[in-house]
Amino acid sequence: MSKDYYEILGVTKNSSQEDIKRAYRKLAHQHHPDKKGGDEKKFKEINEAYQILGDDKKRSQYDQFGRTFSGQGGFSAQGGPASGWDFNGFDLGDIFEDIFSARGGSAFGGEDFLGGFGGFGGGRRQSRARRGSDIAINLETSFEESVFGVKRSVVIDRTVLCEHCLGKGAEPDSAIKKCATCQGTGTVRETRRSLFGSFNSLSECSICRGKGEVSEKPCKICRGVGAGKKRTTVEIDIPAGIRDSEAIKYTGLGEAMPGGSAGDLYIKIRVHPHPVFRREGNDLLMDLSLPLSKMLTGGEENIDTLDGRVLVKIPELSQSGDFLRLRGKGAASPRRGGRGDLLIRLYPKLPKKLSSQAKKLLSDLEKEGL
Ligand SMILES: [Zn+2]
Ligand SMILES: [Zn+2]
């Protein structure tokens, strides 16, 4: 059964890093596969949980976004009108960085001819390549869809590299020359005067946009930008058993960045609550109220589960709050496969009114001590 990382380590959202470390050490020691009675699966689970919760940054990402899955869906270039789902593109920057490793690299590699962002401290160039923004979209699903999985498509207007110049911003036959404004450094020095004297500061060259080089013939299609917006349809394969607030990550399907790598696309799932079923781990819970007589003498009852109608046996002398368990009728575990159970909690339905006949029968029951 798949659990919450806090549950796996037996800690709470309020536990300190010290508590988490202590809990991890104890459990890792206990379940180490080299030990007698060790459990490799459990040990891996504990380690996965500690990798996230033991790191303040990853822990706060996890608190905010839950677990993410790497997406497997395809992606096609043309799309119809976006409709039917919440379409909120917003920039998450790097906050999702390596929550879970995802497949592949960026969809559009782009030759690295920029050499990185123009450095601002002492003119030193930073080694980090430019990266396009991530795109995050909220996608709503019904409770049933989250249990069984569903395929959806979303339409996004994303930045893609210009197909004519492949993101270089120059006509394919254009020569590249050193930027005259910044002498190829990508940065320009500005002198500012203030009450305390004059200061030199470095800023990115606006002519070559920090590249240090310019093309003699800018691309006719993108006017030298190297990229533009394009409507894209992404097929989303929502795995069976996904939970509310979990996200699916599509590496490289965020905004493209000429000369750098594309950001990622995050599909954050919002599961609508169900009027009957509640989810607890991979189990589903429901309440069932029965006539008092059926609770006492037992019998059979038709239950509408998410898999259809099932006839269940009500045991004699069922107590209020007793559970019936229907194995395998719960939600799927998207990581481990298999399904949880459906737990049916029994309650007596007490009457609001009594007929004189019922009163008479009850007075007989009273004599029986009931
Ligand atoms: Zn172009
Ligand atoms: Zn320049």
Automatic annotation (TrEMBL):
Signal peptide: none annotated. Participates actively in the response to hyperosmotic and heat shock by preventing the aggregation of stress-denatured proteins and by disaggregating proteins, also in an autonomous, DnaK-independent fashion. Unfolded proteins bind initially to DnaJ; upon interaction with the DnaJ-bound protein, DnaK hydrolyzes its bound ATP, resulting in the formation of a stable complex. GrpE releases ADP from DnaK; ATP binding to DnaK triggers the release of the substrate protein, thus completing the reaction cycle. The keyword Zinc-finger applies. CDD domains: DnaJ, DnaJ_C, DnaJ_zf. CXXCXGXG motif repeats lie at residues 162-169, 179-186, 205-212, 219-226. The J domain is necessary and sufficient to stimulate DnaK ATPase activity. Zinc center 1 plays an important role in the autonomous, DnaK-independent chaperone activity of DnaJ. Zinc center 2 is essential for interaction with DnaK and for DnaJ activity. Its cofactor is Zn(2+). It comes from Candidatus Giovannonibacteria bacterium RIFCSPLOWO2_01_FULL_45_34. It comes from the Bacteria. SMART domains: DnaJ. GO terms for molecular function: ATP binding; heat shock protein binding; unfolded protein binding; zinc ion binding. This is Chaperone protein DnaJ. Keywords: Chaperone, Cytoplasm, DNA replication, Metal-binding, Repeat, Stress response, Zinc, Zinc-finger. GO terms for biological process: DNA replication; protein refolding; response to heat. SUPFAM superfamilies: Chaperone J-domain (SSF46565), DnaJ/Hsp40 cysteine-rich domain (SSF57938), HSP40/DnaJ peptide-binding domain (SSF49493). Binds 2 Zn(2+) ions per monomer. GO terms for cellular component: cytoplasm. Residues 149-231 form the CR-type domain. A zinc finger (CR-type) spans 149-231. Zn(2+) 2 binds at residues 179, 182, 205, 208. The gene is dnaJ. It is found in: Cytoplasm. Residues 4-66 form the J domain.
